[in-house]
Specification:
heterodimer, A: about 120 residues, mainly beta, four-stranded antiparallel beta sheet, about 50% strand, B: about 120 residues, six-stranded mixed beta sheet, about 0% helix
């Protein structure tokens, strides 16, 4: 099993460009989420999804869009990249909501730099 | 609101020393879950343990042990006889079962552990 696959691993964008970070899982997990990791800030939730067709905002959603058309895929779109979006992005999935006691399986991360 | 505090930003030890990583949490929920994750220098996040709020038994897995104390809202992680391969950032996390917060894990800011040979 591949688990959670994120692409690309590294990306450099110019301010104002848009792009999509891809995330796919093959574990038939109901729940998927995107976090960003910044130095000294830990991991902060951007968006999450509790099933195909259902998404919602996390703590830091501004500047990002998501959709969940299939159980497997949960792409994160940066609409107009800004230097403040320079970060490491992690996709995570779990069998069900974390509040039911399910921990995350994480992807390997995408290191994004916006210049 | 749920909150996780890892007061130790960085810890440096010499190999074979024991080290304890502190985690203090805040929640109003009576049912909740606590987690520890490890992030080695390669960057991936690896699940270590989950504990629910009704199980205060300590857990031991090899050189790793966890001490959960509801009375002090703490879930501390001890590595016995540390090794260089234990060098990593360690995250403590919390999820609540009820209310509007059951959709997420809330992470502490992490503790960078460096084990020197």
């Amino acid at each position: 099993n591949a688990g959670v696959t994120q692409t690309p691993k590294f990306q450099v964008l110019k301010t104002g460009q848009s792009m999509t970070l891809q995330c796919a899982q093959d574990m038939n997990h109901e729940y998927m989420s995107w976090y960003r990791q910044d130095p000294g800030m830990g991991l902060r939730l951007i968006h999450y999804s509790v099933g195909a067709g259902i998404t919602d905002q996390g703590e830091v959603p501004n500047g990002y869009n998501v959709s969940r058309s299939t159980t497997e895929d949960f792409p994160l779109r940066l609409l107009s990249a800004a230097p403040s979006q320079t970060s490491v992005y992690f996709c995570a999935s779990s069998y069900s909501r974390p509040g039911r006691g399910y921990g995350y399986t994480f992807g390997s991360g995408t290191r994004l730099t916006v210049v | 609101a749920q909150k996780v505090t890892q007061a130790q930003t960085e810890i440096s030890v010499v190999e074979k020393e024991d080290v304890t990583l502190d985690c203090v949490y805040e929640t109003r929920d009576t049912t909740y879950y606590l987690f520890w994750y490890k992030q080695p220098p390669s960057g991936e996040l690896v699940f270590l343990i989950r504990r629910n709020s009704f199980d205060e038994q300590n857990e031991i897995s090899g050189r790793y042990s966890w001490n959960f104390q509801k009375s002090t809202s703490s879930f501390n992680f001890t590595i016995t006889a540390s090794q260089v391969v234990d060098s990593a950032v360690y995250f403590c996390a919390l999820s609540e079962a009820s209310g509007g917060s059951n959709y997420k894990l809330t992470f502490g800011k992490g503790t960078l552990l460096t084990v020197n040979p």
